[in-house]
Amino acid sequence: MPLFPSKSVFLLALGFTCATAAYAQTASAPQGLAAQMNLQTLSSKGSDANVQIFDNRYQGVKGSPYFLDLFVDGTVEIKSGNAGKSEVYKGVRLKYDAFSNALQAVLPASKDTLQFSTTPVISFSLEMPTTGQPLVFKRFKEAQTVDPNLRETFFAVLQESTDGKVALVKRIGKKKIDANFKGPYSSGQTYDEIVEDIQYYVVANGSMQKVKLNKKSIVEALPNQSEKLKSYIASQKLAMSSETDLVKVVTYYQSL
Questions:
Q1: 122 with 1, same domain?
Q2: pTM for the full model?
Q3: Alpha-carbon torsion 234, 237, 238, 241, what sign?
Q4: Which of 6, 75, 186, 231 is deepest in the core (most CB within 10 A)?
């Protein structure tokens, strides 16, 4: 959900574009400290900038709104102007607020945390601490076939499409459960809580379809190779109860 007015979206894109020009002579894309300094410049634009100093909006709420609770190295691709161009910023310390659909970045000088709307963001990636590999997040126009409200949602790409075949993506959603301890039908929960709402989808042929962590769901989502998928799942003794198993099946499907 956008956190700032549309006027600020333009200012964000403009701020990134102007900052890029300062580094264009030495690198194709700002990296590391240079990229973070762009954010420092952006933060000095005052109240009209599409950023804000991090606040304590989640204080007292149980659970985490973030995909990862720590800042990690990342890359952001930002829209540049209205001609379909973009700028890429590498080596920025990022954190993704999945509850608000917003990105946070650490300023190198002040160590302040800035939060900015993802409206002008085309894609971003985060270096995963467990694997050391980047996990890419991007929007999919096919998401509107599932729910129009998903058009601005970023999905983590678990298996990229190859040769136009199916892709596997994950929506790392977060939802808030309000305290409910008053009245005869209350649950007795005395605190607000943010919980994960993970959903998996296959993207193919201009549409997106939700799949669950079980054999029946993935086979029904890819009916043109259903018998081969069943045989593969059986031969590999896949329980289909984990994300890893789901990735294996989609990878096999892409090879057919």
A1: yes
A2: 0.74
A3: positive
A4: 75
3 in the same domain as 108:
yes
Show which of 127, 159, 188 is a domain's final residue.
127
pLDDT 10s digits, 86-134:
888 888 889 999 988 888 888 766 677 777 777 888 999 999 998 889 9
Claim to verify: residue 174 and residue 195 sit in the same structural domain: yes
> Regarding beta strands 193-204 and 155-159, do their DSSP bridges make them parallel or antiparallel, or are they unpaired?
unpaired
199 and 82, same structural domain?
A: no
pLDDT tens track for 45-91:
333 444 454 556 666 678 888 999 999 999 988 887 777 788 888 88
Q: Are 19 and 42 in contact (CB under 8 A)?
A: yes
33 and 152 inside one domain: no
The partner residues of 170 in beta bridges, in order of sequence, read 156, 200
27 vs 219: CA distance, rounded Å: 47
Helix (H) or strand (E) holding 30: none
Name the domain count of the chain.
2
Cβ neighbourhood burial of 51 (10 Å; 0-12, 13-18, 19+): buried
In the chain, beta strands by DSSP E? 51-53, 72-80, 85-97, 102-106, 113-117, 121-127, 134-138, 155-159, 167-177, 193-204, 207-211
Residue with tokens 């209205």: 82
Q: What is the residue-wise DSSP string for 132-174?
A: S-EEEEE--GGGGGT-GGGTT--EEEEE--STT--EEEEEEEE
Give the structural domain span for 46.
1-127
**For 168-227, what is each residue's pLDDT tens digit?**
999 998 888 776 655 555 555 666 788 888 999 999 888 899 999 999 999 999 999 999
Amino acid at 50: N
